[in-house]
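Students often ask why we bother encoding 3D structure as a string. The short answer is that it lets us treat folding as translation between two languages. Here is a chain of 311 residues written in the first language.
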Amino acid sequence: MTVPTPAAQVAEPRSGATSRVAGSLRWLKAVVQTSRPRQWPKNLLVFAAPLAGDTFGRPHGFWYAMVAAVAFVAASSAVYLINDVVDAERDRRHPYKKSRPIASGRLPAAHAVVIAVVFVLGALAAGLAIGEPWLSATIAGYLAISFSYSAGLKHVPVIELACVASGFVLRVVGGAAATHVPPSGWFLLVCSLGALMVAIAKRFTELTVLGADSAKHRPAMRGYTAGTLRLAQRVVSVVMVMSYIFWAATEPATRTRIFHLISSAALAAALIRFDRLTARATSKPVEDLISRDPLMVASEAVWLVLFALGL
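And here it is in the second language, the structure alphabet:
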């Protein structure tokens, strides 16, 4: 009979502990992946109203905006978790989405639901914690629309586009509520049109990549054609630039008005580049086209510099 050596007796518990740590890290990685950290930068839209107004509106307004950003990160992560639970079966038949943690089994659906509930409670509590019930109300509206989208609205053509676009706009409204900087009507219109344009572009790229199979993965795609989506994207882009020009023209300060009007050319250049990028059949997320293409980033940088000079 072989008697385990002291070294072997010590090594076995260590191996078990190492395995548990590795398992916990894999689980945590799956949670983070499902929360879509690549989408978190869109929550910086809470700074849009303070940036456009050149003021944070209240003492320590920057930190109130940061609280709003973190709250929307939690809220949007909860939405992604629930959405992936609902779509798990469909995702398993998708050429790219089948590797998502819930669809692949790396994150149990029950765990995802519990984490989502925690995130929802934290997001709603954020506004109340800083004494801004309107921030909590905005987040509640965002969650209501997003969960309704996951529950069935995502299968309704056009309505599902409005739901996706509303997520961007409500982030802007949430930032305005947290900092007490009311956005102008023109500004909200520009943000709404930009969000709608991105949502349309997402559907167009899906349709061009998946073709006839797109409806199997997203039933709402039956209500779209490539030509209609392409036309809609371009019409919304033109109206967005026109709205931006009208907004810039209403700026009371001459310096601000001039620089913001000039910046509309950079915005138009960015939208033209975006139009060309989305015309290609690509499986890359639309967000990657916006943030990783050199010409697109250069146009965005020029717009931002001109916009900042106006402030």
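Translate back mentally: The chain has two domains: 31-182, 184-311. Keep this in mind for the problem set.
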